[in-house]
Amino acid sequence: MPWDRNQMAARAAEELEDGMYVNLGIGIPTLVANYVGDKDITLQSENGMLGMGPFPFEGEEDADLINAGKQTITELSRTSYFDSATSFAMIRGGKIAAAILGAMEVDEKGDLANWMIPGKLVKGMGGAMDLVAGVGRVVVVMDHTNKHGDSKVLKECTLPLTGQGVVDRIITNLGVLDVVEGGLKIVELADGVSEDDMRAATQATIVN
Question: What's the order of all strands across the beta sheet hosting 42-45?
Fold first, then answer.
């Protein structure tokens, strides 16, 4: 069976190591906060929070505590707050070790499109362009295909780019792919997903 959203988030959490400062993007990546476990990870939100906890239980939400996606979150004993300029100074200054981001499209060169679809209403690009340029490692978490069954893992992105050659690893509901020379390399397959399944759902070049 392909992974569901929570299993994808749990797999993305395995990418994190003690001592890391990590930014979580909007969508499935926000769920990663629930799977950090005992690791000493500090989660950063570009709206001005360092040290995000997991999502609150129902009835314990604080409307003043939100992440970049405007979801209510919890604070930790070490949480700190600051303005947007300080937040982006951390990102642009290379202080954030990794970003886990969602995507509309990603391609075999590591190009990322995750901020707009032409003709559709868009809230803004958010911090994604700064993140992909400033952090040490970019991991994308997304469904492998769109609702029509078309691959979102492409030879070349068709949507406006967030960044070129910025993606290191792709985690989808079918498994894990790394961006390598010549295309993408299969690192891991979800339970019950075969290599043939992965190749059939992937427009991008998969190298051995």
Answer: 75-81, 49-52, 42-45, 21-24, 98-101, 137-141, 169-172, 175-180, 183-189, 206-207
pLDDT tens string 126-178: 788 999 999 999 999 999 999 999 999 999 999 999 999 999 999 999 999 99
pLDDT tens for residues 54-66?
889 999 999 999 9
CA distances 168 to 31, 37, 38, 44, 197, Å, are 20, 24, 25, 20, 22
Token digits for 27? Answer: 């969508």
Catalytic residue, chosen from 46, 58, 75, 105, is 46
CA end-to-end span of the chain, whole Å?
23
Catalytic-residue membership of 14:
no
3-state secondary structure of 129: helix
Structural domain for 62, as ranges: 5-207
Residue 75 structure tokens = 């604070």
The torsion defined by the Cα of 188, 132, 65 and 49, in degrees rounded to 10, comes to: 110
DSSP 204: S
CATH of the domain at 97: 3.40.1080.10
Domains contained in the chain, number: 1
Nearest to 103 by CA among 33, 159, 21: 159
Supply φ then ψ for residue 139, to 5 degrees.
Answer: -115, 125
